[in-house]
Design brief:
The chain is an all-alpha fold. It has 8 helices and no strands. The radius of gyration is 18 Å and the shape is globular.
Length: 225
Amino acid sequence: MTMLTLWAWVALALGVLTALAIAWDVKKRPQHMAIMNVTWPITGLYMPIIGWWAYATMGRAPKSGAHHDHAHHHHGSDTPKWQGVFVSATHCGGGCTLGDVVASPIATLTAFSVFGSAIAGHFLLAFVFAYAFGVLFQYLPIREMSDSGPAAALKDAIKADTLSLIAFQIGMYVWMIIAASMWLGEMNAFTPEFWFMMQIAMLVGFITSYPANWVLIKRGIKHAM
């Protein structure tokens, strides 16, 4: 076992444990916004240990019976803007990550390529699935929290998610190009090394999507969470 493989297994195990810990806690403390019950555990997958800190600090809801206070805390003026943007970025990252997790094995199994490039094939499928899940992650809370009809909610979801999703995917792509040239060699979604690099890529994507979420929130296109 190489050192990279060892690090990969450790990082992936910590990611899974962090996600399970958050999921267990969320079950006892449901989120005010239902989609965040999924988003926070996904965040733990690519933010091992740090994901728990972020959840406990910015997302953990009181136990049943105190949802109103939780909503006020996270949407009120007492919440620092950077935290609202951070949670919005995790929301974007949740859809992107889920899309990437679904798309990568498909790309590997089908040997899908674009102009003979397996990496480009991975990236294209990842973008399609990430965009679909990303818009869905925006659409559901818009429908849940407002009186918007399906068409209006879909339009708002596309406006709210497109820029942040593109920023997330660009960060992810840049890291995976580096990883493929330096460590992976090929984009094989059935190796721990690939998912370790994807874990880092998703964290990079989160960082690159943060400014986009800040701009969208500042312009009122997206609401801080």
